[in-house]
Amino acid sequence: MFLRREVAIYLGLLLALVGAVLASLLLGYRVYSPLELWGALTAFDSSEAHIVIRDYRLPRALVAPLCGAALGLAGVVVQTL
Q: What is the pLDDT along the chain (81 residues), one digit of tens a residue?
């Protein structure tokens, strides 16, 4: 029973992370539709929307969770030392 609760918590956190990454890709100075996002990821045509999504928003959205994980890991290491 306790294991199910942990799995549910981790699943909820994973869904929140996916939602935050999607929001990061879609929302900004100009709001893009999910269809524009899908087009930028699958059929790049060098339009303004596709350039902004693939060259600016996607790298930022992928690096942000990695930086957060690295900071969390660094905190664990510092506390154990």
A: 667 889 999 999 999 999 999 999 999 999 999 999 999 999 989 899 999 999 999 999 999 999 999 999 999 999 999
Residue 11, judged by CB atoms within 10 A of its CB (0-12, 13-18, 19+), counts as exposed
User: DSSP labels for 12-63?
Assistant: HHHHHHHHHHHHHHH-SSS---HHHHHHHHHS----HHHHIIIIIIHHHHHH
For 22-61, b/e burial (b = at least 16 CB within 10 A) is eebbbeeeeebeeebbebbeeeeeeeeebebbbeebbeeb
pTM of the model: 0.81
Looking at residue 8, the DSSP 8-state letter turns out to be H
